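Predict the structure of Reverse transcriptase.
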Amino acid sequence: MGFSAKWRDWVALILSASSSRVSLNGIEGERIDHRRGLRQGDPLSPYLFILAMDPLHRLLKIATDEGHLSELADRSARFRCSLDADDAAIFIKPSRQDVDSLILILNGFGGATSLQVNLQKSSVLPISCDAYLGMPLTVSRLRKVHLQYLIDRIKARLASWKKKLLSAGGRRELVLSVLSSMPIYVMTALKIPKQIIQEIDKARRKFLWDGGDEFHGGKCKVNWQRVCRPIKYGGLGVSNLTKMGRALHLRWLWYEWTFPDKPWIGMPTPCDEQDAELFAASTTVTIGDSRKALFWESPWVSSSPLKTMAPNLYRHARRKKRTVANALQDNKWINDIRHNLTSMLVTEFFKPEEDGRVVDGWRGEAAVGSGGDGAAGEATVPEAEVKVEELGVDAAGEESRRRGEVRVAIAMD
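Done. Here is the predicted structure for Reverse transcriptase.
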């Protein structure tokens, strides 16, 4: 790995100097020298783990390049091995050659590092497994049955509370801190069906206004839409799950800009077209080398992207995914729309030319920044949720198409 002998001696000294004692009835026993290994909670542990497992990634890559392992079918997949603590998930083609090659690689890696693989405790799972890290996995459209467990967990939590002993304010706090936070993990990675959101809202509404088993609409003091408004707008501050989901999805779009080297870049995300339009309406793009900003879809000319400023021209363009640098090189964007021009298209054609930055305003490196007063990276998901409320984006996201001029800070930390 290229580390000097002195650095290796330092690490060996740290490992050999650790010790522990057994406490019996408050009396500590003799010192036990470990000689090797790390103590629990040692911050050095993850670094050494990464150094030890990096050769395994390299061995798998070499085996793939030499044809011993079949290439992964998905072109966007960058890593064959996924590691979590002492568990490893390795993706291979279900063929005899790949399995035999993998066993040889693991045995060789274990002999060199003493990290032996227990094949008796290992298992083979089909790629279309039901769940991973608590998330339902399906190749078809996500349905209510896939997330029924989430509703069951919320109902189980409600059943354990002494509802009649809680005040209205206490029930509100539980709705805010517990019931509204339980679906966040799933909503960050998935686009939850409306039926699931309606079931969760039904449970939250029932507990908030009544707290008992018998509930009807007459017990609601105000309608649910007003309950879900921020306090400064006259609501109770209860999260609107639909808008909170959009705020969580904006995080993916933000990370695509700020961390382009993340392993999942290029793979599908839970963001839909309305999320992308809301992101475009909520950020400004500072043009640098123009290799990241999209010519038609990024708001780099003004507060709105070019596809909003010139919708007919956008639909007429042959290449809609050009970057700014690629589109401006030799005026390729003009060649994309040169065919079958009409008077309406010609009128829209001159709109981008009115801004001088189209011609000569790109230098340095590309960057994306939040609009408004916040600096990039300072806003949080709750703040983004409030901004979604301010934009007036409904469940269908229609308002994001009409209010592109609003500047909103949506950078996620």
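Residues 44-113 form one domain.
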